[in-house]
Amino acid sequence: MQGFGFSLAGLVVGLAVGATGVGGGSLMTPILILFYGISPSLAVGTDLLYASVSKSFGVLLHGRNGSLDWRIVGWLSAGSVPATLAALLFLHGVEKGPHLDAMIKLTLSIAIIVTATFALLQEQLLRLIKGDSLGALREWRDRGQIPLTIVSGALIGALVTISSVGAGVIGMMLLLLIYPRTSPISLVGSDLAHAVLITAIAGIGHISLGTVDYSMLGYLLIGALPGIWLGSKLAFRLSPKPLKRLIAGFLVFIGSSMLIKVLSAGA
After folding, report:
1. 11, 67, 144, 211 — which has fewest CB within 10 A?
2. For residues 38 and 72, what is the distance between their CA atoms, to the nearest angstrom?
3. Mean per-residue pLDDT for 62-89?
């Protein structure tokens, strides 16, 4: 019966991701923790491998369409791979139990709130990024694209390894900020390719930590893969903006609730 519940969760999250591009780890991980009672470390580790597999289909499509900039993926990876390995070493040094779970919940709640904020304010942020009022910032950013990309990759790598959140909406917003003149489709493909790489590395690292449930992973994928396909079809028939706002609002609620609980427990 629980297997059916995991597949249902995979289907719901897959539909959300396919239709709006918002969700992924920011939805799946808190759902596993809050609604299924899965420990935070096990939820993160399993979700990382789930994300790596589910996102790989999107990468294949972008690669076939030529909408991938491997140069951007390479610079992101130059920062994210070392940061991911460092975060895994850090997690290996933390004793499993309440302290590790509290740290993951704290990081996860903050990452969810940031993700939801970016999703809600995406259009306004894009207008601000491309506005003439940011001419000086644009000039500085253009001169430092490579180091900014490496630093962004490092931030995403560490965040994803600890919380499983950050490779989607947060990564995309950082790329839009750094590469405003690059085709958004190319940035989406590059962000996906980078996400597959770091979630795979982090997921394998979590296997060594013993924080992956293979049975749960299988059930999640059974629901998620058709959900992503169906959601992508529905995206052409539905207006994604209201649904995206609804999901983002739900994420703000979940992230805030989790953050309050963690801070209250630590007080």
Report:
1. 144
2. 35
3. 91
CA dist 179 and 187 (Å) reads 8
Residue with the two structure tokens 């079809």: 233
Whether 137 shows a pLDDT value over 90: the answer reads: no
Structure tokens at 264: 């209250």
Give the list of residues 6+ apart from residue 129 with CB closer than 8 angstroms, or none. Answer: 176, 177, 180
Angle between helices 25-34 and 145-163 (to 10 degrees): 20
Question: At which residue do the structure tokens 């779970």 appear?
Answer: 101
Please report which helix (H) or strand (E) contains residue 74, including its range.
Answer: helix 70-93
Which domain range does residue 41 map to?
2-266
Is the separation of the CB atoms in 162 and 103 below 8 Å?
yes
Around 28, how many Cα atoms within 13 Å sit in the side-chain half-sphere?
Answer: 38
| Ramachandran sector of residue 210 (left: φ over 0; alpha: ψ -120 to 50; beta: rest) | left
pLDDT of residue 144: 82
Residue in the block written with tokens 């706002």: 245
d(C-alpha 210, C-alpha 59), whole Å: 28
- Taking the alpha carbons at both ends of the chain, their separation in whole angstroms is 37
Number of H helices, E strands in the chain: 12, 0
